[in-house]
Amino acid sequence: MHVYCTDLEGTTHELLATEGWSVMEIIREGGLPILAQCGGSCACATCHVYVDPSWKAKLPEPNEEEVAMLDGTFEVTADSRLACQLFFTPALDGLRIALAKGSV
Amino acid sequence: MADSSLRTDVVIIGAGPAGLFAVFELGLGDMKCHLVDILDRPGGQCAELYPEKPIYDIPAVPLCTGSELTARLLEQIHPFGPMFHLGQMVEHLEKTPEGLWCVTTNLGTVLEAPVVVVAAGGGSFVPKKPPLKGLETFEGTSVFYAVRSRETFRGKRLLIAGGGDSALDWALNLHPLAERITLVHRRDDFRAAPDSVAKMRALVAADGMDLVIGNLTALEGEGDRLTGASVTLASGNTPTVLPCDALLAFYGLTMKLGPVANFGLTLHEGLIPVETASFETALAGVFAIGDINTYPGKMKLILSAFHEAALMAKKAFAYVHPDRRYRFQYTTSSSDLQHKLGVTEGTAG
Q1: Model confidence pLDDT, tens digit, residues B166-183
Q2: Exposure winner among A19, A40, A43, A51, fewest CB in 10 A?
Q3: Contact predicate B241/B230, CB 8 Å
């Protein structure tokens, strides 16, 4: 199972995905730079990613805490999520995301 | 400078869990500590990022929050009387002619000691800056990330960006002084204290303050003076230019390595390599503990920082007390250590 992550240069990387891992962990363990300063506790907004619109409907809605935390980053769009709050399931095999500027 | 410098045994850069526990281990070895931290309070990430988040992996403490951990560490090191230099950042680390390490902060504090412990975690907490072209041109003259003097904003058309307590508190605080305040936030929902939000909304309803829901996209100005900011409204309309004399941006803090990179240490991917017998760096007498260091097998856990502090203190002893022999003792049984902790046998706990 894989996640496809596009870096700031526009290159897309195929990352090995494990069920139950957060997308932030999948990116980090895949060797891509991601700040994730708070270590995945939804407290810093430095794992901001954009989810490909075609995948958005498959993800659970962000909770209030995640939405509030996005206040602490920039260039937030309707596709913005915090990768530490997205947990991988087999239904997300092939998920496409892109890193945001404030996260690397 | 030497006349006004403070001489101590150990200077600790960073007052997070690693730096705080280092005071304890060093204190048991009769080493006095001064700590410097850019935050205005001890605790590091525990204070700034997750004060209310639960921590479950501190040995023998099944659950505590970041702020509780900080409070307990402060209680634990209280007997050693550490000196804190808060709200400042270490800018220089140099060797003095006498062979001591000299640490200078951006506020002019000068500390000299035979030992320096870098416990700087992920670096210095600095304000998050919006990615706006030309931002640096206006910084310090009309773009600010904190209020040093309220008078700076008297009679100004002031734009305040953000949706948390800092943005709301300053909007309310500066409202009587400023000519006009416009609060800009990306959504019509605020995570600030409900009372502040209610006060702000009342002012907006009474036309005492403007509230714009949208994102800053560009700055306009003459020289280093801001004259306006473009905002893309959340409602999807075309960008609007908000005339203003100053911008206060409150998007929270982020960690940047900062001057640690210029201390003369060869960094590995932004981390300080250390050897694992004492967590000393390539510079004799300079140690690095906690999240800022790297070595084979390193895990960024508070637990690791505590272990590193204990081993560091043993080696530091040789620098601070070169004429003394290091004595390994247990707090459980050593009346000497219990005396240092201000307890006598049988009354501890």
Answers
A1: 999 999 999 999 999 999
A2: A19
A3: yes
**pLDDT tens digits along B209-224:** 999 999 999 999 999 9
Structure confidence by residue, pLDDT tens digits, B282-300: 999 999 999 999 999 999 9
Check which CATH number belongs to the domain holding B82 and give it. 3.50.50.60
Give domain status of residue B307, yes or no. Answer: yes
Nearest CB to A41; choose among B50, B185, B186: B50
What's the pLDDT at A14?
A: 98
Domain shared by B147 and B213, yes or no = yes
Domain hosting B153: range is 129-251
From the list A66, A45, A59, the residue with the least C-alpha distance to A87 is A59
Contact residues, A window 4-43, toward B, CB-based 8 Å cutoff: 35, 37-39, 41, 43
Distance between CA atoms of A71 and B143, rounded to whole angstroms? 19
Q: Do A41 and B49 touch (CB under 8 A)?
A: yes
Phi and psi, residue A85, nearest 5°: -105, 5
Distance CA A53, CA A12 (A): 16
For residue A44, the chain B residues in CB contact (below 8 A) are: 49, 252, 254
Q: How many Å apart are CA B238 and CA B235, to the nearest integer?
A: 9
Phi-psi region of B84 (alpha: psi -120 to 50; beta: other; left: phi over 0): beta
Q: Please, which pLDDT band fits residue B71 given cuts at 50, 70 and 90?
A: very high
User: Which of A38, A76, A102 comes nearest B186 by C-beta?
Assistant: A76
Q: How confident is the model at residue B1 (pLDDT cuts 50, 70, 90)?
A: very low
Q: Are B242 and B212 in contact (CB under 8 A)?
A: yes
pLDDT over 60 at A59, yes or no: yes
**Same domain (yes/no): B239, B287:** no
Please classify residue B176 by burial: count the beta carbons closer than 10 Å to its beta carbon, then call 0-12 exposed, 13-18 middle and 19+ buried: exposed
Whole-number pLDDT of residue B347? 52
Structural domains counted in chain B = 2
Q: For residue B215, which residues of chain A lie inside 8 Å, CB to CB? A: 74-76
Q: Which among B49, B251, B255 is the nearest to A43, CB-wise? A: B49
Collapsing DSSP to helix, strand or coil, B305 comes out as: helix
pLDDT in tens, A24-53: 999 999 999 999 999 999 999 999 999 999
Chain A residues in contact with B186 by the CB 8 A cut-off are: 70-71, 76
Q: Is residue B349 part of a domain?
A: no
